[in-house]
């Protein structure tokens, strides 16, 4: 007696692979542009680092009790303005370097090669120690900005 074999022929399998390849070729470009998401995540991380570093430096300032002009965080002196890091001090405190970001004047930190995807640190302005302003304050960069 002969057994009847069942299954797919080689041509059927090849056709399925070809169809899947064509679908993937059209679908991949829609999902492959993760660059904007990466830039947004990077600048949101920098904004969070600035906020945290500012709070830590201010806590060290308050703990000193002598109103120092700088505090030392992880062996790095951080210059202060009204008890909070200066625009240059926040970069050192948050460990933000020009290797990772484009550093502008007046506390502007931008993603490399993107002038719109940025965060701005504004120093404390009053001797009453008004906290510094970190823009965007909600740490959410607009999708169109990056």
Structure description:
By secondary structure, the protein is of the alpha+beta class. The chain is built from 3 helices and 7 strands. The strands form 2 sheets. Strands 4-5-6-7 form a 4-stranded antiparallel sheet, covered by helices on one side. A 3-stranded antiparallel sheet has the order 1-2-3. The longest helix is centred in the middle third of the chain and has 30 residues, at 35-64. It is elongated and about 95 Å long. The mean pLDDT is 84.
Q: How does the SSE layout of this entry go?
A:
Blueprint: H1 10-31, H2 35-64, E1 70-73, E2 76-81, E3 84-85, H3 87-93, E4 101-103, E5 108-111, E6 118-122, E7 133-135
Antiparallel strand pairs: 1-2, 2-3, 4-5, 5-6, 6-7
Keyphrases for this structure?
four-stranded antiparallel sheet; 3 helices; elongated; three-stranded antiparallel sheet; alpha+beta; 146 residues
